[in-house]
Amino acid sequence: MNSTTNNRMIFYLVAVVLFVGPVLLLILQSFSQTWRFQAGEGLNFQWRSYEVLLSDPKLLEASLSSIGIGAGVLLVNLILGISTGKALALLSFRGKSFVEAILLSPIMIPVLAIAMGLHLFMIRIGLADTLLGVILIHLVPTVPYSIKIFHNAFHQLGKHLFEQPLVLGASPVYQLFTVELPLMKPALRSVTFLTIVISLSQYAITAIIGGGRVITLPMIFFPFLETANASVMAAFSVWFAMIPLSLYLVMEALILLLPYSRMPWRNRR
Known about the structure:
Blueprint: H1 3-30, H2 48-54, H3 59-90, H4 96-104, H5 111-125, H6 131-157, H7 159-167, H8 172-183, H9 185-200, H10 204-210, H11 217-226, H12 230-256
Helix pairs in contact: 1-12, 2-12, 3-6, 3-9, 3-12, 5-6, 5-10, 6-9, 6-10, 9-12, 11-12
Keywords: Cell inner membrane, Cell membrane, Membrane, Transmembrane, Transmembrane helix, Transport
Main location: membrane
Organism: Halobacillus mangrovi
């Protein structure tokens, strides 16, 4: 067995122990009564935890709101991240370092402080207690990461690669969908997962800007937490995890539509 095979086996083993194993335990806990390993008890499977979860009248509303907010935040992040990251990576101008520092500064300031400062402004312009207002405040902790990821992606590909389509007469839109986005698949996946997870995890700023009218899944999580029932909390966690996973699969399907993706019907002759 060579060193490459050994490294691969170590990687798979670490991945199973650190990532796959905890997820499987969480799913098993959601379908069983609270399991106490030290008591020597076995698993007693049941559906009660999901019955308690689905009996919450706000679960559907919170799930749909979370999906809508996550999708909206992701769309704006892609637009701002690609355009700003490309400009920072390919253009040279005076004060570029200062602009980069300003764009990344929101992640160095507590988001809660920014949300409290923007709350009065959003009340004045009518965005408080609205879905659009929550989407805008979720951009604060997500856009800097998107810009940084796309900035690094464009920088690694280099300026000359993106000059060739322009020399051949491609329009900016044609270049975006046939050259830039296909080359940016890893960055698109990273931004998708990171943005959705950060957005769905926001509780305090959603409560401040949403004013209790915009209900998301983190806001209905605490009543389940008070039950101290590990099975119910595990069921909620599994339900919660399905949203970013579903949005990620939607993004993967959209990526498959880009040129040069490996699709069965494109390989036919």
